[in-house]
# Entry
Amino acid sequence: MAGDDRVVIIIGPQGSGKGTQAAIVAPQLGLVHISVGDLFREVMAGDSELGKILAGYVNRGELVPDDLTIRMLFERLDQIKAQQPTLRGALLDGFPRNQAQAEALDRALSERGDRLVAVAHLVVPYDVLLQRLSGRLICKGCGTTYHATLNPPKNPPFCDVCGNELYQRSDDTPEAVERRLKIYYDQTEPVLARYAKVGLVIDIDGNRPIDDVTEELLTALRPRLEAR
Ligand code: AP5
Ligand code: MG
# Structure
C-alpha cells in the first residue's frame, strides 16, 4: 500500500459473516482482504515458537496481545504493498478489536498517509451467531468458509473451489465461542462509537442470504471508495 490508499474495516460479532463477505467483496472493490485471524491460523499451522504462542490465545478464544497483533498486521500490509502495488487499499477483517488497537490504527494510517473511508458493521442476532459457528467448516487448502447446513459444500467434506478437505476451527468449541462473543460485546463493539462520531459506520443487516448481504456491502462501499 502506498500513501493515499483507502482502508475499509469490516466489523461484527463472531459468526456475523466478516470472513465470508470480505473474501467476496475485497477483490471486486480492488482491496486486499487482510484477516488477522487467518494470519494467526497460518502461523499456527507451521511448527514455530510464534505459532505455539498464538495457539495458546486463539484456541482458548482470548485476544492475542495488542503489540504482537499490531506488529504482525503491519508486517503483512507492507509485504502485500511490495507485491501488489496496484491495489486501491485494504479491507481489514478482525482489526481493530479494542480501543488500543483502534488508536494504533489511527496512528499508523496517519503516518502512512492512508485514509479510513468506511466501517461496515454486520448486525446479526445472538442465537443466529451460535447456530452459524457450531456448523462452520473451513477449507484446509484455500480457506473458503462453508456451513454444514446453511451454506454446505456440493461434495462434503471437500471444498468446491480447490477440492481440499474441510475442517472445524479449533476455537469453534462452545466454551471458546462464548468467551469470544463476550470479548466482542465488552471490548470490540464499543470501538464503533469512535467511528460513528465521524460518520464512518455503515450498519448492514447480516441476517439475510449471503448474496443479499454482498450486494448491500458493494452498493454502500463503492461510493465511499470513489470519493476524493
Ligand atoms: P477470527 O478468525 O477473526 O475470528 P472471529 O472474530 O472470532 O470471527 P469469525 O471468523 O468467527 O466470524 P466471521 O464473522 O468471520 O464469520 P464467517 O464469515 O466465518 O479471530 C480468531 C481469533 O484470533 C480470535 O478469537 C483471537 O484469539 C485472535 N484475533 C483475531 N484478531 C485479533 C485482534 N485484532 N487482536 C487480538 N487477537 C485477535 O461466518 C460464520 C459462519 O456463518 C460460516 O459457517 C458461514 O458459512 C456462515 N454464514 C456467513 N454468512 C452467512 C449468511 N448470510 N447466512 C447464512 N450463513 C452464513
Ligand atoms: Mg472470520
Summary: The beta strands are 6-11, 31-35, 89-93, 115-123, 136-139, 145-147, 166-167, 201-205. The CA atoms of residues 21 and 214 lie 6 Å apart. The first strand starts at residue 6 and ends at 11. The chain has nine helices and eight strands.
